[in-house]
Amino acid sequence: MAALGSAVLRRGGGAAPRLLAVAVSCQSCRHKATGDGGHGQPREQQPAVPGRAGGQPAPAEGADTKTYLWARYHEMKKLVYDLLPPGVCNLLNPAAIYANNEISLGDVEIYGFDYDYTLAQYSNLLHSMIFNTARDILIEQFKYPEGLAKYDYIPGFAIRGLHYDVQKSLLMKIDAFHYVQLGTAYRGLKPVPDEEVIELYGGTQHIPLYQMSDFYGKGPSLKQFMDIFSLPEMTLLSSVIDYFITHGIEFDQVHLYKDISDAIRDVHVKGVMYKWIEKDLEQYILHGDEIYAVLNRLVNHKKKLFLITNSPFSFVDKGMKHMVGKNWRDLFDMVIVQADKPNFFTDRRKPFRKLDDKGSLQWDKINQLEKGKIYKEGNLFDFLRLTGWRGSKVLYFGDHLYSDLADLMLRHGWRTGAIVPELETEIRIINTEQYMHSLTWQQALTGLLERMQMYQDAESKQVLLEWMKERQEIRSLTKNLFNPQFGSIFRTFHNPTYFSRRLVRFSDIYMASISCLLNYDVNFTFYPRRTPLQHEAPLWMDQLCTGCMKTPFLEEMVHIR
Fold first, then answer.
1. Top-level CATH class of 107-122+285-400+407-415?
2. Does the annotation flag 116 for ligand binding?
3. Which residues contact 264 (CB under 8 A, 6 or more apart)?
4. pLDDT per residue over 89-143, tens digit each?
């Protein structure tokens, strides 16, 4: 079994925990007299040992259950070690594209792009600038206490996809089943005890659907922070609450949330952020040369390109000239600025306005969208009518799952690609030996707990409690590898996060940056991995043996560039 594990791990990414789950099952299958029919399936002709689920083998004659349980524990630890030989890490490629839905690039004729955090990736320095400016707006214009000036931006405090309960002043991570992940609820900059969180929600961790959010992540009292620009907003929100609590200042939760949202909005709407970036494009914009390579490659393969962004033309023009060159508009068939997404996708009322080369508004009625021209506002329904670009021949990329992708996939049938910059960092953590060993042993320990829970004598219960404590410690360790406060943006301890649920629902493919397209042929077909449902678990061995869990490696695709 260990030999098979090593072979599979060399071929595919992320297979170790899955292989181990099979190994746990196969270990029991070796006991032919137990009543197992293979991979945990009971044989009808051999009844299970009474009191032991699935025909679990009994301890050897004369051995106490405590000794037996610890023997199985150490046996499984050795198996984990054998499954993870030295050099097993670096299985996943941060530059890969991951598929939620099968899609062939050969069928895509038209590529669309958002601008901010899609074509233009920004350095983290921008977050500090947004935080500081919004903080100063609160002090100078909203007359908040001057003591807030002592707070600076905390890189890595928050992660994308968190929910904020306005009435309870709680920032927290929620999973795909609407449960708060205990240990990830913060009021201000301090964690809220698990018991208090459960009490606040009526004795449960569950958040009812009507409270969660509408289609765009906004509920009656809960707000979900989905874009990368929201990182400084969450940190400022937590900092202000921390100051008020520390100094015993009473505050109205609704007013505080609104004031901070307005201050952050002013940084964007009044153009302050745009001026910072325009003054130092080299410092703020990352990987610009790769964007030209992507766009030029698509045009050379006769693909049509368009841009739909909420940013103003002068800002986009300076950024694109920096990344692509002064003739960047020649690459695009259509450029639409200040589009007011997501309203652009749902509201039919706003007509297109044309801009001249200097960005000044024109007054003529728009009866066609011309190549190389710049348009402002408008709506998707006129866009579809004037271009005829409909359905799965269009692939649109954006970083905001709601504002950029949701309507396009669900209402209009476009293919969608999510840009998730955090993916690169998270994959590098997943590739570490510490994470790989922790996760694999955690899943092995979980399997042991599941299969050994039928032993209910006092000594066995104590062993199981020790295992449960160890499992919780490992879960906390793996969470902290990603972010000490909130963990991974993709997972709670074992469930997908609410963010992940939306990512899967609203995107056909996802990747760390647009430059990942350079690693694939323009006719490449992406096939999502057939990850088994819970009742399909015995089929994992078949999948591993056929190598269908393999993930693309950059070096295997270098010939495409």
1. alpha beta
2. yes
3. 130, 134, 229, 232, 233, 236
4. 677 899 999 999 999 999 999 999 999 999 999 999 999 999 999 999 999 999 9
